[in-house]
Fold:
Amino acid sequence: MPEISRFYGIVIRMYWDDHNPPHLHAEYSGDEALIDIASRAVIAGRLPPRALGLVTEWTTLHREELQALWRRARNLEPLGRIEPLS
Structure:
């Protein structure tokens, strides 16, 4: 699963052949959550509140880029990276 960003110990990944709805995988300190790109809601798993807040902020800032990466992933194209939260 390609890593598309990393910040504050949080790793953001996206699968090429993943299921709908469009989402990303966020991992932090052994926890993982699937985050819906459009609503930024947790659709599976969990993250500590602070990490989830950072992921939500980052997802809000990069929503259009994430939607474009999802389309690329569905077409089995290289994903590239998105700037980390700073």
Remarks:
- Residues 3-74 form one domain.
- Residues 67 and 83 are 15 Å apart (CA to CA).
